[in-house]
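Kindly go through the following sequence and its backbone structure tokens. Advise at your convenience whether the structure tokens fit the sequence:

___
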Amino acid sequence: MRASLIQIAVDPDEPVDARRARVARLVREESGHADLVVLPELWTVGAFASDLFAAESEPLNGPTHTAMAAAARDAGVWLHAGSFVEAEGGALYNTSLVLSPDGELAASYRKIHRFGFDKGEAVMMAAGEDLVTVDLPHLTIGVGTCYDLRFPELFRGLVDAGAQAFVVPAGWPALRRAHWSLLARARAVENQAYVLACGTAGTHAGVEQAGHSIVVDPWGETVAEAGPGEEILRVVLDPAKVTTTREQFPALKDRVLGLATPKRG
């Protein structure tokens, strides 16, 4: 399976509609290069531009969905369209879309772990509740978003739901770039799964982005890693490698679930 991670630079001087059109063009240009295309988190507004969240929010079937569905259909690719600010029932969500090659919505995921420590996303957006997997040809992906990467129990749940690869769009700050690559490798190693982590480039809301989108294989080896700027990272995944890794080193079967509450001495 061929995958392309499009590391988008979020420039605050670029109008959202213009960026949406530009990204749709980039997706279309991956026709013939990829079976799966992945975009970053909140690339429409910027993950740290919380002052724009409400103004740029849209319904699930809004302009981002419409533009990305058309791009996926034109390119003939599976598209993880990153995430956008979804408005529904008076609440905002950090919502990801997965679109099929015919442009149909295969799944949506509302980010469960919201970043901000009682500021920004953590107070402005509601939390999702559902784990989401999607069956692609020959590969089942589990979906997480950015800060989710710090919570291994989410990815264990996705493995239990059948995930063989994790797709993680992000708007990760450059200040903590070392954590970004470390956590991507850790989630791959402990779950014996591919990790496709796609971040943003540039600077928005005064926060420099890490870039360095990364693909890690089920042994924890880095397949490819981008630099800090806008870039398209193209890789080839071998779905059979997930199976062989889990057979050759069957650590997942040794999990001990339902551990008792620690006793106090």
Summary: The two ends are 53 Å apart (CA to CA).
